[in-house]
Amino acid sequence: MKIKRPFAFVILFFSLSLVLFAKPVRVGFFEYKPFHIIEDGNLSGFGYEYLRELQKFTDWKFEYITRVPVLDTQGQPTSRTEKLSYSRALDMLAKGELDIVGSIRKTKEREELYFFPKFSSGHGYETITTLVDNDEFENRKTIKLGLRLGAVQEKDFSDLFRDLFPQPIVFMYYEHYSDLIKALHETKEIDYILSTSLREFSGEQMLRKFNSFEHYFAISKTRPDILAEFNYAHDQLFLQKPSFEDRLYARYYQNQMDAVLSLTEEEKKYIKENPVIQVAHETNWMPIDYEDKDGRVKGITPSIFDYIAAKTGIVFSYISSDKYKNFFPILTDKKNIILASFA
Asked: For the whole model, what pTM was predicted?
């Protein structure tokens, strides 16, 4: 079927108007896997997809800023360029040289510098990590703790963790995320990284996680128009795709969260002293807890214990009965026994 010329002209005009009259929005895009991923010039990641989804409800045209001029000693731009860093992005956002920057925690100080939308773009927490084979921190005279410049600050490091690091701590700041990772994994300049759960933990073990927070896409105070449109787009996204944020988080973070297990020294000691734990379970409570025709333990609860066993090395030994009341005497007599399910 042929399209009539007037109708075709309308379509062409509409398409051109989207391009010609789209609103330019400068997005600070620094390397911070998996929130921001830059590989061979291609962009992706949690933050990238989040903004692309919001863009569907606006007339924005994104310009992703990944490199910026190197500044001289007077703070003036030179002809050379370098990768955009988190701290540089925050500075440019405050000056109106960028319009949107993601993965920012809202504080009173930052609310003076930037606009924050009505809703956050997710949750995270601060972390202390080290290499998977590093278990010698107790023997070190000093602890070298690496941080990303502009993110978690030395003053935010609570005295709560003096039990973990009783030695003197040397804080070492890095402008670029890649330099921070290199300092731990390659040059060994630092022993630990103090950062957040929004980054990748490949080859690392988590010692502590603390200070849960919400993270936002902050907006330049020179662009109140973008703030209003951002809030509108966010509202529409939540109304039309209420599970979008959860699905996006699962895509970029769930695998690494599953791979990371944070155990205290006390928990490690308990597992070492109690490698086998008995579990009292009912044989006929499908699908929660039961045994199949071959006597194998099945159900939702045993699956949870299987997951815990795979992560910790604990062996769960099952005690079976068709009635829970039969377990009550042994529950009071023995310490290391768990009642699988109870209602």
From this structure: 0.73
